[in-house]
Each structure stands twice: as C-alpha cells, then as structure tokens.
Amino acid sequence: MLINESSKLDHLCRRDPKLAGIRRRLGDPSPWKRPATFATLVRIVLEQQVSLASGKATFDRLRFACGGAVNASRIRLLDDASLAGCGLSRQKVRYVGQLARDVQARRFSVAGLARLSDDEARQQITSRLGLGDWTADIYLMMALGREDILPVGDLALVTGLEELDGVVYRQGKQTTANVTERAEIWRPYRSLGTKLIWANYLDRRRK
After folding, report:
1. Which residue of 76, 98, 105, 201 is most buried, as measured by CB atoms within 10 A?
2. Dist. CA 150–CA 173, nearest whole Å
3. Would the pTM count as exceeding 0.85?
C-alpha cells in the first residue's frame, strides 16, 4: 500500500517530538524536488561548499553560455576559460568537464541512476571526479526522491540539529557518527527529517 507524504510526516513526528514542533510552526516542508537530469547534477556540483544563491547564480550563467540547456554536449563545446568565465572555480571546471566527458563516452549514465539502489547510485556518482557523498546524497534526495537519505556532510543539517537540540554534534571524526545516531529514529524517512531541519534552519536565518 502506498503511504502519502502527510502520513509519513505523521509517523516521523510521532517518533521525534522536536520535528513535530517544527512542523506545527512551519507546516509541511518543501518537496525540494529537482529534475533527474545531467543539468541538476551539474547544479549540485556548483553548490558544493557555497551558498545556494551563489550556486544558482553560477548555474544561471552556465546555462546562458550553453544556449539555455545544460547538457554534456553543450558543456563540451565550452573551453576551460569559458567555464571559468561563468564563475566556476578551477576545480569545478575540471569536475564539470570530466562529468560531461564521462557521459559522452557512456562511462556514466545520469538516466540510469533511477534504476539503481541507493548504494549503487551513490557508488556511481562518487566514482566521478570531484563528486563525493554530499553530491550523491543531495541528488538522491532531490532528483530521485529517495526517502531514507541522510546527508551527514551537509552543514545546514548539522548546524540545524545542533540548534534544535542544543548539542554540539561537530566533533571531528565523530561528527558523522553523532549525526547518524541522532537521526536513527527518523528511519525510514530520514530525507523528510532532513527537510524539516532545513526548513527550520532557513526560517531562523530569515528572522
């Protein structure tokens, strides 16, 4: 039987009263949905270690340079200087360029990720130059709609949990274990739990 989003949130909030408090104040979280495309994966790469606004601005410039559609063939028509002119760092020029080459050479299929398990899709993504677990997790959550993803490397998630609980989870090599343990009660809907934390994180900063 299919379970709707509201019922999943009900289940999650029964297990974690602090998430229930966020939901009462802010309502159900945004779906944060993006198309399952090469362009989305590139945009997530551009969002690595920068703000969402900065990543979007760079992506918009890249899309303009690509003639309105970001795909592997159009990326390959741009040289490194053109990519850098869109605002890509030297590292991200390499990452995006190599990703486009991998797709064109059929070493990597973005469309094929939807047919894989979470672990298989993560392995495929993280095998690409410069694409790590954070990039894989965000793509799995936002593009593929996977429900039990916990992006432990996401600063907004970790900071949001610390603010919610009044606990320091960032403790060097223990950070991943601390965040994973804290979110254990969210299974099998850790993606929804993350989205509630993100909503609270953004709301606090708007105020």
Report:
1. 201
2. 17
3. yes
